[in-house]
Records
---
Amino acid sequence: MPPASAIVNDGNVVYDAHTNDVAPSGTELKSALLHRHLQHEPIRVIGASGNHLHLSNGRRIFDSTGGAAVACLGHGNERVKKAIARQMEEVSYCHTLLFTTPAAEGLAQELVSSTNGAMAKAFIVSSGSEAMEAAMKLARQFYLEAIPPQPRRTRFVARKESYHGNTLGALSMSGHVARRALFEPILMDNVSHVSACNAYRGMSNGETIEEYVARLARELDDEFTRLGPDTVCAFVAEPVVGAALGCVPAVQGYFQAMQDVCRKHGALLVLDEVMSGMGRCGTLHAWEQEGIVPDIQTIGKGLGGGYAPVAGILINHRVVDVLGRGTGAFAHGQTYQGHPVSCAAALEVQRIIREERLVDNVRKMGTLLEHGLKQRLADHPNVGDIRGKGLFWGIEFVRDKATKKPFDPRDAIAMGVHEKGIQSPYNISLYPGTGTVDGRMGDHVLLAPAYNITVTDVALIVKLASQVVEDFFAEQK
Ligand code: PLP
């Protein structure tokens, strides 16, 4: 039987995603799945291998973003597939209240060992948002069980222009104005947001990096003071801001200064490495480049590389010791926590990254990618900034290069660039994003290819991505 047709309404035209034929007018959407858009059925992916997604219309797309910085080994890795199948044969599920599995224990051991003694325990969940929820509850429990207990600590300080997830606690931490907007009245009111560290947009003219860092540290310090320093559980930040800003790393010395402020006020430092961690930025943990160790760290996308839904938190000795001397348990549990199949997938992904020294390749290929993108696009009149680390790069688009004025959100520039990319002849996926820039929406695309890409792949990404950007803006004129 031929596949049922997949009718797509992209706002301009109704077409069949299997055949790309325009459908007769009046045709109704047939999918029973609630996609993000009720009126827009995404293009069907019927296969994936290496760096490519195979579409139902026969085209192959170069996945230069690994989804949302997820597929760190590319698609269809044989070792990971076998590990998953083995785990399915052994134990597909057991509840972690009473039981554990070699897969979950092995993954936790692999993760803790990767921190060279900095972290004491790993806690495994299914998504980055869940990891953020767990981190918030753990921070709160830490202060309840501290000696003496500090029950007044109920607040969190996060940053503007950040994204920590879609569940209500994680969204409350997020400073992403557009993603919060609809839900603002039901978000937690115990989270406040200080400025992000964004050299391109945040540094004043003539300000040095040291002065910028000192200014941001003062802002955090003032916020603790305003809230009452003994009321804050933790300061929460992404080492490299992903979806909300488009791969914006902090300037040198920023995280050390932020940790100093946290220590001064006795608050924990929680780093959200869901997007930027597990090798993506050129070290297994992004904090290794900042000269600090967080108290709690969340991890996600690159942990399982998309082979299974898996995320987690890593917890340092100070926090574990307090709970160990207190109730002896983390008061938080979920049905699919430490899921054996997810853990087996993630463990194999992490072993491959370690054994094949893929983080070294991330650094090498990242340098080439940076060089190629900057050489080709840095002077483009609508490219405001190209920034990132490792294999995590963002290109920010501006209406006016001199004033850094962003595009009108109604122009949907980032989505337009993405849509152009997935068309022939380019056939490349660039991850679109809109953040908030000076109170207005800003546009960027992310590049986050697999850690095992080659020099040839990098050259292809640079060529295709640059061509898409150049052609897209040429057609806007
Ligand atoms: N934290 C960061 C930094 C993220 O980028 C994301 C997702 O994009 C999340 C948390 C939430 O992860 P998930 O979508 O797996 O719930």
---
Amino acid sequence: MAPFVFSSELKQATLQALHDRGVAVEDIAELTLFLQKPYVPNLDLERCVHNVEQVLEKREVQNAILTGIELDLLAEKKQLSSPLQQIIEKDESLYGIDEILALSILNLYGSISYTNYGYIDKLKHGILQHLNDKSTGKVHTFLDDLVGAIAAAAAGRIAHRYRSEEEEQQRDSAD
Ligand code: MG
């Protein structure tokens, strides 16, 4: 039996894969900041980076990222079988499995992350604009959705934590 993959190994591979594909944690955090700034006073990039890092700690998220990036890479090298090769390489709009994979991340963080994902996916803010630039010769069919989903998940995480902080403050002032 093959030895199982250690969590630390999986996490390292995920961060490396994102880095190799030109995505920094700060790029994702910048999207989170954009999404959540109107709702959380004094929200800064540092707090968004922390929340993105927490999302990236989850094995389900790591699995989704590694799977999506692998398919992007294989399509880029033209190593997938037909017709999947053409579908992923061309980022066909009716394919939809890239969004489904992103849902596996959003599922962990609830409805706020869903609405944020839809919003950022439409706007193509920040690094998403670069990832959607088809003239680069790179295939980012999965990566753009994964990055949007991580940012949206971190936004959902911040929203829930902010509410808890507010509740605590109200309780304290009522004491
Ligand atoms: Mg896509």
